[in-house]
Design brief:
- The chain contains 13 helices and three strands, in the order H-H-H-H-H-H-H-H-E-E-E-H-H-H-H-H.
- By secondary structure, the protein is mainly alpha-helical.
- The protein is globular, with a radius of gyration of 23 Å.
Length: 286
């Protein structure tokens, strides 16, 4: 079986979103090169490594994306054809060690931004303001949040159960809520006269963030709010597994790219290290 057929069968089995299918097809058509002429079971580690490292010279992001797409197809083939010995030895095992990491994005809000952010949000229409606030409170992806439905909410548990069809990675995701986002949802629910079904944020202007101007010049784009939530989780000491679960990620390296350290958090690290050093000095003097 060749890559084009494997890709077609993979799409048929996984039922991905059209945009995801287009992204997968595009990265393969642009970068998979000679792999299309080689049966999937005959792929070698050296061939995969050479291909991906060559792509990395042009774009680290595309190299990582190509690896993930090829790896997903390979692992799906291994599950679909368990009796085929060729699929047991994965040709991607060592490739990742030679790939450079994608530089973390810098978009997040810092402590001086929050008063202005909430003041600007308060000036938006009620639904838009509630959506922007919920993005910051929950770290949900903006699309999943915009499509949130009342029937997804388990009021007794305080959980939003988002079906995999509305998640980027197609995994079901439970967003566990604290008191503030629960209160926000209760107010919206009451204003909409307690609906059992339907959109939580009807008539949403999903580009309302463009009306938010922060003096710092930083952007309150929806994904920056998600990164802000992830970054603060890291600063509060939560390990990557907890952060990965909150953000709904499969891979830890993706989660780490969402966590951008603030100056204050790094300064605290420096202060703790120097405190330890000086503490040792004081013990020696005493």
């Amino acid at each position: 079986m060749y890559l084009d057929e494997a890709l077609r069968l993979y799409f048929a089995d996984k039922t991905l979103r059209p945009k995801t299918e287009r992204d997968y097809t595009s990265v393969l058509n642009c970068h998979a090169g000679d792999l299309f002429a080689v049966p999937v079971k005959d792929w070698t580690r050296e061939q995969i490594e050479r291909l991906i490292l060559n792509v990395q010279d042009e774009s680290i992001a595309n190299a990582n994306k190509l690896k993930r797409v090829l790896q997903a197809i390979w692992r799906w083939m291994a599950m679909e054809y368990p009796d085929e010995p060729e699929y047991r030895a994965e040709p991607f095992v060592k490739v990742g060690k030679k790939l450079k990491k994608v530089k973390p994005r810098k978009g997040r809000l810092y402590k001086d931004d929050f008063p202005f952010f909430f003041a600007q949000v308060a000036s938006l229409p009620r639904i838009d303001a509630a959506w922007m606030t919920m993005l910051l409170y929950t770290a949900l992806r903006h699309r999943s949040c915009a499509l949130m439905r009342w029937e997804w909410i388990d009021w007794s548990r305080g959980v939003i159960a988002i079906p995999g069809d509305e998640m980027k990675n197609h995994d079901d995701h439970e967003c566990v809520l604290s008191a503030l986002p629960m209160e926000l949802l209760r107010r919206l629910h009451a204003r909409q006269r307690h609906p059992k079904t339907g959109l939580v944020f009807p008539d949403l202007d999903a580009r309302c963030y463009e009306d938010i101007k922060l003096p710092s010049g930083r952007s309150a784009m929806p994904h920056n709010l998600r990164r802000t939530h992830g970054s603060i989780m890291k600063e509060l000491g939560y390990d990557v597994d907890v952060r990965k679960r909150v953000l709904g990620h499969r891979l830890s390296d993706v989660t780490e790219n969402y966590c951008i350290d603030s100056d204050d958090s790094l300064r605290e690290v420096n202060e703790r290290v120097l405190g330890a050093i000086l503490g040792h000095v004081q013990q020696q003097v005493a």
